[in-house]
Amino acid sequence: MTVFYLKFLITPTLMLAISLAAKRWGTHIGGLLSGLPVTSALVMLFLSLEQGPGFALQAVPGALAGLAAVQATYLFYYQMTKRSGALIGSIAALLVYALSAVLISHVGKVSVSVALTLLLLSVIIAVTTKPSHSGQSKVVSLPRWVIPMRMLTATALLLVITACAQWLGPVLSGLLAPIPIIAWPLAVFAHVQGGHDELGAIVRGNAIGALGVLGFYLAINMTIVPWGTVPAIAAAVVLAVVATFAVAKLLQRR
Fold it and tell me: Do the beta carbons of residue 35 and residue 209 sit within 8 Å?
């Protein structure tokens, strides 16, 4: 029961904190924070606590496939909405996510997912690098219902994945973990209210954050069984945060 109550306490609190930070400091920081492995870390934590470290280890290939699919979706949405509106772009992007997630997870190889993710991240960072992103970052005004929606959705997703983990299996459970509950609404609202450049700032920040997520999953893959649940996930989260902001700083200097 303690684990059950922790889900209700930790998940909405983290969603609220990151959403308020994104609201306060603008689209670039919002993209970075929304790209961090918040939902992913919580899913892996509770999968490991409830199903065992071995189950969480088996979920890593699915999670990496999901991460690649998410980045493919962002790249598709960013490119497509140069010529179409947000509504059509969102519907098409969801279809791209479903198709790419199925295809990449069907391959089932960690090396393929990692290579594809790195390729997609490189392309995203390249196509979204513009002078307007190097300095100022706009603060996008979100409707009041968006933050509560994120808190409820993230908590519901965590409860569904962990409750149905044995039925879903480790691969599908992992595949659902990287779903961008924070980043996707932020990206769409940034696009609608701030235009394509602001969408680019969110997508770019999320791509940089995804490098940390990639490190998170690779660290989990190496340490969750020998180290145990809490030390492995704590170390992986620290690695993700350090890697994300180190890369962001490096790219900013360039």
Answer: yes
Q: Looking at 84-93, 162-171, 190-199, 228-237, which range is the least confident one?
A: 190-199
Distance CA 94, CA 251 (A): 29
Give the count of domains, the chain: 1
- How long, in residues, is the chain? 254
Write out the residue range of the structural domain in which residue 182 sits: 2-253
Contact 81, 89 (CB under 8 A): yes
pLDDT of residue 133: 43
Calpha distance 174→195 (Å, rounded): 33
C-beta atoms surrounding 228 within 10 Å = 12
pLDDT interval class at 135 (50, 70, 90): very low
Read out DSSP for 189-201? HHHHHH-HHHHHH
